[in-house]
Amino acid sequence: MDYSRIIGKNIAEFRKAKALTQEQLGDAVGVTGQAVSKWENGGMPDAYLLPDIAKNLGVSVDRLFEIEHNKHIPTEEELLELVGRYGFDRLNAKDGEAVFRLIFEMIYRLNFSAFKCENCESVWDIIDRWECDFMTSQLILDEGTTYISLVKDMPYICITKDEPGLIGRLLGEDRYCDLFGLLSDPDGLEAAIFTQSEYSKSGAKYTADGLAEKIGIQPEKLKELLPKLVKFRFVAEEQITVDESEFTSYSVLQNNEFRPLLMTAWLLINSQRCYNAYCQTREKRFLER
Known about the structure:
Number of strands: 6
Largest sheet: 4 strands, mixed
CATH class of one domain: Mainly Alpha
Number of helices: 14
Structural class: alpha+beta
Oligomer: single chain
Helix content: 40-55%
């Protein structure tokens, strides 16, 4: 078998998939661009360079030579056990960044596998190289959808499984106008943001006037907004009795759904329809009454 021809073809293919020039690959492994060109035209790299070449191309040495092995494909249970063990160990080591990056990378690669492409590069390499203001990877299937933001400063994942009755529950909710009415009011949005920024100081109790002063809005305006702030769990309301007199106090709450709502809204506002990977096989409508 002519391995020099095989490895030359594969170096050229994988180099282009990584968007590297011959000079860039050469610099990475300590040779000239002319040497890389020679390999791609039938020359054989020195054996000691093969690990570095493979590493920089994001493949194995066996892959460069197209050597197949009967590798064990882990079952779903084995894979989940490995991921769980990795996450447990890294969190015990207080390395939450490693856990986050692994989860994001795994979901992206599973997403990309729908395209039956074996040369899926690291999502972090994509984000670092393109530095796009807006780039996403999406699967839109009848069974559900995934949405992965590849925006450099806002990696974000949303996965929705279309369970029976989901759309009915979404469209059956009659309080959207209340929520969006609160957030579309500049003072309402400011109040909602304040409650989340002040949560680390939770335990503090305010009168309505004191809370208005902390937020920086007029007391009359806050009193108008308070019923919705309480309804949507931005603020807790409590009746306190002092010397037989009743007072109403307010404290801020952590609303875990607010931040992803802002992120989703930001992506919706700034969407430029620039997709990195996009698969649409869905036949069902997203919203159907």
